[in-house]
Specification:
alpha/beta, seven-stranded parallel β-sheet, 8 helices, 7 strands, globular, binds nicotinamide-adenine-dinucleotide
Length: about 260
């Protein structure tokens, strides 16, 4: 947890209005806390209302928004509230995502659709709702979308013993959504980038990391010799959302301890 006044705190997002999906847990929570520590006001979006309330319930600088990124009606209602409260947005982070494991031959259509709905279609629907609010930003600074993809949009970690073809494919789609939207976004002053995390210790990876063999394998496979922390991801997202990244669009920042170097 990043506290105001800590070494990790700056003011790069002072006065900015940000929205983060999947903000109640793991990477999304760390991103939300980092953006607040950098001075932003925040719309914290998640389908888990209880978790949102327990994490952000007593923060006056946070608007909690219960919404499902796969559901257009719930997003329209949620972004209606954000528009009424904030008027515009400076930064959007599409972080909500799910992973499922299984071999190709056992993969059902329903599970494929579910993974694509959250990881690929969700960021499209959320960005479409947020886009007019981002375009309405006041013009003094750059506005941006950051999509949380994964190293698995670029490589396939099949040797981990956890095949996830639908996850790989859905994150690959999000990577190309990022690149394609960055071209149109450039005309509107909206930068669009991706952050590709490697293994980060969150509830999402808790099960795989419980297996000592899998943990050792990941540590050996990571040049920097440690598993990532949600704060590692949050630091990269804050940078890409700030004016320090004002000429950066359509690219991916890998935050993986060197995993993808090999
Ligand atoms: N943890 C890792 O090692 C890792 C690595 C690479 C990429 N990522 C990506 O980071 C993102 C966050 O992962 P995490 O590890 O923090 O996961 P997590 O499971 O800890 O948190 C995900 C959050 O998203 C919310 N969410 C899930 N589906 C949603 C939906 N349909 N609508 C709204 N909210 C929804 C959940 O309620 C939860 O709060 C994901 O996109 C994931 O693919 C994670």
């Amino acid at each position: 947890m990043i506290e105001k006044g800590s070494d990790s705190m700056g003011n790069r997002l002072e006065g900015r209005l940000a929205a983060v999906t999947g903000a109640a847990s793991g990477n999304g929570r760390a991103i939300a806390e980092k953006m607040l520590a950098e001075g932003a006001r925040l719309a914290a979006i998640d389908l888990n209302a209880e978790a949102l309330d327990s994490v952000f319930g007593d923060r006056p600088d946070v608007l909690t928004v219960e919404a499902n990124v796969t559901d257009e009606d719930s997003l329209k209602a949620g972004f209606g509230r954000i528009r009424d409260e904030f008027g515009h947005l400076d930064a959007l982070v599409n972080n909500a995502g799910i992973a499922k494991f299984g071999t190709f031959e056992d993969l059902s259509r329903a599970e494929w659709d579910q993974v694509f709905a959250v990881n690929s279609t969700g960021p499209f629907l959320v960005s479409r709702e947020a886009y007019p609010l981002l375009k309405a930003g006041n013009g003094d600074h750059t506005r941006s979308i950051v999509n949380i993809t994964s190293v698995e949009a670029h490589i396939v970690i099949s040797s981990s013993g956890h095949p996830q073809i639908h996850y790989n494919a859905s994150k690959g789609a999000l990577l190309q959504l990022t690149r394609a939207l960055s071209v149109e976004g450039a005309q509107a002053g909206v930068r669009v980038n991706a952050v590709a995390p490697g293994f980060i210790e969150t509830p999402f990876t808790a099960e795989s990391l419980k297996d000592p063999k899998a943990r050792d394998w990941m540590l050996e496979r990571t040049p920097m010799g440690r598993i990532g922390k949600p704060e590692d991801v949050a630091n990269g997202v804050a940078f890409l959302s700030s004016d320090e990244a004002s000429w950066i669009t359509g690219t991916t920042l890998f935050i993986d301890g060197g995993w993808t170097v090999y």
